[in-house]
Design brief:
Elements lengths: L4 E3 L14 E4 L19 E4 L6 E4 L5 E2 L14 E5 L6 E5 L6 E3 L7 E6 L4 E6 L4 E6 L4 E7 L7 E5 L5 E5 L17 H8 L4 E8 L4 E9 L3 E6 L6 E6 L9 E5 L6 E3 L6 E8 L5 E8 L20 E6 L4 E4 L9 E4 L5 E5 L6 E6 L10 E5 L15 E2 L5 E8 L2 E8 L3
Antiparallel strand pairs: 1-2, 2-12, 3-4, 4-31, 5-6, 6-7, 7-8, 9-10, 10-11, 11-12, 13-14, 14-15, 15-16, 17-18, 18-19, 19-20, 21-22, 22-23, 23-24, 25-26, 26-27, 27-28, 29-30, 30-31
Length: about 425
């Protein structure tokens, strides 16, 4: 796999430091599917779901996943980023969701995915050993070295702004997991013991152009997490607090210069907001909502999935004000997510509701009818879910998700005919 390397003086503007920004060509062409060129077959196998009667396609052969449900993954030409391979040897591929054919993203041997930009198909990656940050244009098959970072940069890189300028750093101290294990059993004492574990943290940014670190906020007794930079405003970062969502403010936003700290959907104690994500327009935030202010069982049943309270889908604007709240949906879904065009919703079930779901969405209507499309066979684990991470193909024809098939964890697809 050859690379042609050349300095691009246009991209290099504004760069400080000793290393120039390089632009390179990438091979092979992974953005124009052609019959017979891909190594993968149309589908590994198909079957009729035992509960819904719908045909399910298995798309992977050695484990497959879309990655975490919040991650953008759609190229402008309809292809999708997927992950194949086991936990220790996972590779990033570009896949046609209609055929299941795929090719690996080149030059990822020592790099890890940071962020993907749906609008133009740019993949931001990081090489921790070389301390380099790259932008790979998967449409035009070119990549750019955006800059380097020092070995003593505080914390670890969690995200990057959509203009490729700021690395978002989480500098958290949370070493008590051996004494405060994750509550993966339906055990309220275990749950609250984990929530009460000692920890502290900080949210910082590193400017790849000026080599400057800016501390945005510091916390004590909890940590910032779930960092997700804004797709429409490169100066805005959304994040959450890792406290119990039922009595604390969950979702926040702040600007890269440390200004503009705001609550996204301000909560009263007892209002529960969780599983936040950027809406399809990149200007609003979706989330799961439960009103547990009058729920006397909140302490003994802190889990959303076991709560007696109904679950709703909420949407807030960029300033944090709630602009939409649905009627109660059919039950609690581990993750609710929206299609690229904002017209379809996906849901992944929980204990006793092990299906992937889809629904039509109209912001003018508060009614959402989730329809089960396929059974999820992965055992449900409290606090962990079933690792479904579903998303729609760009044309809305397929809902892709991960499930246990035989002895493996595979990427599957089911047609969205609702």
């Amino acid at each position: 796999m050859g690379l042609f390397c050349a300095i691009d003086p246009v991209v290099n503007r504004g760069q400080t430091g000793p290393e120039p920004i390089l632009t390179m060509t990438m091979t092979p062409d992974i953005t124009s599917p052609a019959p017979g060129r891909f190594a993968a077959p149309n589908a590994v196998k198909t079957w009729i779901d035992e509960n819904t009667g719908r045909e399910v396609r298995q798309l992977s052969t050695s484990s497959g996943s879309l990655g975490y449900f919040r991650q953008p993954r759609h190229l402008p030409n309809g292809l999708m980023l997927v992950r194949f391979g086991g936990h220790e040897n996972r590779t990033l591929h570009v896949m046609d969701p209609e055929t299941g054919q795929h090719d690996p993203v080149p030059n990822m041997t020592d790099r890890h995915q940071l962020k993907f930009r749906n609008a133009d198909g740019v993949l931001f990656t990081i090489d921790h050993k070389a301390r380099q940050v790259w932008a790979q244009d998967l449409i035009n098959r070119r990549e750019t070295l955006l800059g380097t970072f020092p070995a003593d940069m505080p914390g670890h890189v969690s995200d990057i702004t959509f203009d490729g300028r700021y690395l978002v750093l989480l500098d958290n101290v949370d070493n008590a997991h051996d004494k405060h294990p994750a509550p993966t059993r339906k055990d309220a004492e275990m749950f609250w013991h984990y929530i009460a574990r000692p920890r502290r943290g900080a949210l910082r940014v590193y400017d790849l152009q000026t080599n400057k670190v800016t501390t945005l906020l510091e916390t004590d007794g909890y940590c910032p997490f779930h960092v997700d930079t804004c797709p429409s405003d490169p100066g805005l970062i959304r994040f959450a607090h890792d406290r119990f969502e039922g009595v604390n403010q969950r979702v926040w936003a702040i600007r890269t210069d440390g200004s503009g700290l705001r609550m996204i959907r301000p909560q009263e104690s007892g209002e529960l907001v969780t599983h936040e994500f950027w809406w399809s327009d990149g200007k609003r935030v979706g989330y799961t909502f439960q009103d547990r202010r009058k729920d006397p069982t909140a302490r003994e049943l802190p889990w959303c999935e076991y709560s007696n309270t109904k679950t709703q889908l909420g949407i807030a604007d960029i300033d944090g004000r709630e602009v939409y709240l649905s009627d109660p949906v059919n039950h609690y879904h581990t993750h609710l997510y929206v299609s690229n065009n904002g017209k379809l919703l996906s849901g992944s079930g929980t204990d006793g509701h092990s299906f992937v779901y889809a629904a039509r969405f109209d912001i003018k209507s508060t009614r959402i009818d989730y329809i089960p499309l396929a059974t999820v066979h992965t055992p449900y684990v409290p606090f962990r879910g079933q690792l479904v991470n579903c998303d729609f193909s760009a044309d809305g024809k397929w809902l892709l998700y991960s499930d246990t098939v035989g002895d493996g964890f595979q990427l599957c697809a089911v047609r969205v005919d609702i």
